Amino acid sequence: MITLETYFDFVILPILSISAMLVFIRLYKGPAIVDRVIALDLIITIGIGIITVYSIRADQQVMLDVAIILALIAFLGTIAFAYYIEKQKK
Amino acid sequence: MIDIILAILSTVGALSILFASIGILRMPDFYLRLSVTVKASTLGVGLLLICAAIMFPDVSVTTKAIAIIFFLIITAPIAAHMIGRAAYFTGTPLWKDTVIDQLAGMYNKETHELESNGGPKNSEGGSEPPNIAKSEEETE
């Protein structure tokens, strides 16, 4: 009998970790700076997912506050990068 | 019963995040990467947060999860629009097999304003050709 806890541990968290690793490849080799910006945004979004699954798994609901802050930082970081990339002189 | 619902929701969420990361790695162009990333990752994280909201029998956790989902759904398209606009202005090339670029020549270069009918037409004979990459290596 597979319980939900082992399912979270052995299926969901490895899938999310593999996703984060795949995005790191794009962050490393992205040809333009905008590719790296969206890769960073996606990494933070995957981080929110991992924090959520971990807070379910460890029964720590305080972790969701960290997820709120990370969502805010991802949005503000992408907006700031877009603003300054658009303003820069080439 | 509720375990099965949680398993289905978390599986769909994790798989859509996996598809978003495969898409950002495999798509040939910045704009296609942006298009595939934003929607799939927002859906995946939203489903995982719905899992958390069902799992904890507490009003505060449900409120927090719904707040995060609402914030993500509001802010993800805005951030994607801003970064896509910045990429277009800084001259990120399109994929080499792109058929049409309807924005080519329609933007004022200095003020970054969109001229909907004053600018040259984008199809053949426009004064400014679209910024399409010559080879795969330029955008890969």
UniProtKB/TrEMBL annotation, chain A:
Keyword Membrane: yes
Bilayer topology: Multi-pass membrane protein
Chief localization: membrane
GO cellular component: plasma membrane
Transmembrane segments: 6-25, 37-56, 62-85
Alphabetized NCBIfam families for the sequence: PRK12599.1-2
Protein name: Multisubunit sodium/proton antiporter MrpF subunit
Species in which this protein is naturally found: Sphingobacterium allocomposti
Biological classification of the source: Bacteria, Pseudomonadati, Bacteroidota, Sphingobacteriia, Sphingobacteriales
Automatic annotation (TrEMBL), chain B:
Molecular function (Gene Ontology), one example: sodium:proton antiporter activity
InterPro entries: PhaG_MnhG_YufB (IPR005133)
Domain of life according to the entry: Bacteria
UniProt keyword annotations, A-Z: Membrane, Transmembrane, Transmembrane helix
A Pfam family matched in the record: PhaG_MnhG_YufB
Residue ranges crossing the lipid bilayer per the database entry: 30-56, 68-88
Region (Disordered): 111-140
NCBIfam families: CPA3_mnhG_phaG, PRK12674.1-2
Protein name: Multisubunit sodium/proton antiporter MrpG subunit
